[in-house]
Prior knowledge:
Blueprint (H helix, E strand, L loop, with lengths): L2 H30 L3 H72 L1
Amino acid sequence: xxxxxxxxxxxxxxxxxxxxxxxxxxxxxxxxxxxxxxxxxxxxxxxxxxxxxxxxxxxxxxxxxxxxxxxxxxxxxxxxxxxxxxxxxxxxxxxxxxxxxxxxxxxx
Length: 108
């Protein structure tokens, strides 16, 4: 093989490799291209997702506030219950003392 034949064969091989690379690149871009309708749909979906996240955040905030209110009401109700139970205990003790006092004076 002479030097000229070698250069021509190398040039043909490089040209074929270039053509195959260009064709592969064209195929990849052809199949991965995003249509304008797809972009619009992705934008719409991202907007809906953003709105859903905001709604979720608002719901979480509302639930936290409501939980704090209910906890406060529960603690107030428990305090009132304790006060009522203490009052009832004192009233029972006083009633028992009165019964004992009446029993002693009626027997004696």
